[in-house]
Structure formats: C-alpha cells, structure tokens
Amino acid sequence: MGASATEGASDESGAPSTATVTSGGVSADGTGTTADTTPTDSSGTPDSSEDDDDGPGIYYDLGVIPDTPTNGNECDDKGGGKGGGGGGGGPDFSFIWVANSQEGTVSKIDTQSLEEVGRYRTRADANGSPSRTSVNLNGDVAVANRTGGVVKIISDVASCPEPGNTSSGAADVKPFPDGCVDWFTPIAYSSNRPVAWTSGTFSGVTCRYENTKLWTSGGNGPGQIDVMYLDGETGEIEQTVPIPEANWDGFGIYGGASDADGNFWGSQLSVGHLVFVDVDSFDHEAYPMPLNGYGMTVDEQGRA
Q1: Considering the domain 91-288, what is its CATH architecture?
Q2: Is this prediction's pTM over 0.90?
Q3: By CB neighbour count within 10 A (0-12 exposed, 13-18 middle, 19+ buried), where does 233 fall?
C-alpha cells in the first residue's frame, strides 16, 4: 500500500490596486511562517481606508513561499487553473492518494473533510497490485502497478477527459478507464515498483506546471532491470536506461525519487545498489549500498 498527498494553492495572487507592505513571522505552533499584507498609498503610508477581506493573513506550511507566479501574468486576478503554482489563501484542493493493492484500485481522499471522494481501477484486469504513488505539482497522481503498468489520474474533475463518467467515492468504482484517467502505459516487466514525477516548469499562461516527466523502473530478472523516462502528458516512454549493475532479488529497483534537477535516484530492497540516472544525458551510476535498503527520498540539496 502506498500514499501520496498534494495540496494545490489558490490562484488569488493578483496585484492589488495599491502597493502593499508585507510582514511575516513564525507561526504560533512553530511549524511555518505567516505573512500579512497591508495596503499603502503612494507615499508608502498604510492606507486604513482599504478593507482587509483576507482574514488574519496567509499561512505557508512550507516555511517559505513556494514557486509562485509573479504579479502581471495570466494567473493574477483570480485567473488560471488549478494546481500548486498559486499564491496565498486557502487551497483549491487537498487530497491524499492511497493504493489498495489487493483490490487493484487507488483511493482519493479529501484531507479537509476526510471523505473518500473517488476510487479508481489502476488496470483493466484489476490485477495490477498497485503500490507506489507519486503526485505532481498540478495535483495529478501516477500509480505504478507491481505486476506492470503505470496510470495517470487527473485530480481536478473539471479537467478530466470525461468528467461525467468519474468515481464519486468508494462505492462508485467505474470500469477501467475511469473518466479521470488521463493515460495508461503498459510496462512489460514482472516487477514495476518505483514512480516519481519531475517538477516541470510553471506557466503563467496556463497556470499549470508543464513539461512534467515521470520516472519508473521495471525488472524481469538478472541483467534485465531498466529505468524508464515517460512523457507526463502522453505516457509515452521516451528513454529506457538499462541498469546491469543492479541486483535481481525478485524486485529490481524498489524505491525511487526525483531530485530538484529532475534526475532519478533509485534504491534496492536488500544490499544492492543506489542508482542515479542523469536527466540530460541518461548516463547512470550505481553505488554499492552498505546496508539493506527500503524506501528513500532526496533532500533539497540533492542528497539521497
């Protein structure tokens, strides 16, 4: 069973008619920062004539303002679409995705209401045994089936290919593909485990992260372990990188993550190798692991 969460920021980042003074500080619980904006007139003096309709201020749970669009683009003044590129205010959506391996489905749960708002088959035969999930900065999820195949599901129902034919909850599982399934890519391997999105590039025109890519890996036996690089919009496999150094223990590469530059890092379950694949050249390195591996992640400095 695997889970990933995403929270998409509001688009209400438009430039006000007057300048603003921003003050910030550590939140009361010490987990993040707060920011308050006060309108000013042309002299820089706070303008008390403007009403503050934004409540007590903006709360950033990351501790810093994330990669947000700047004023002056198409996403300002409440324009644009859903996703993680907006400014302050409440989230447009906040879901966690949980793979139901034995059922062959993945659940979409609203983290604010704690309600399951969608459940989706991850393969036509319902025998995919989904496990790993990864959510991109637009809020869309990719799910890898242990027995082969990767599926992408759109988070924002209004943006789905068939919004009128999508699941509304646990008791409403549609035949595959659900109306919010964007694509499915067969992966012809006996073990298909890790899946990891790259960040892509934020567009101030579409208000979405574009040119997103997806890493995954599969294995069929000794000397048959590959890392694959997929187009996030179509699911097409753009590159396949053989990893002959990786040990075959029935799983191949078990955990995976993408760093800030879009490179792939993968670990093995037992004492195997830590694998690195360069996103530009697709050259790879395999570093012997001194200990048994399992899950993994990459920090902001690119350290696995």
Answers
A1: 7 Propeller (2.130)
A2: no
A3: middle
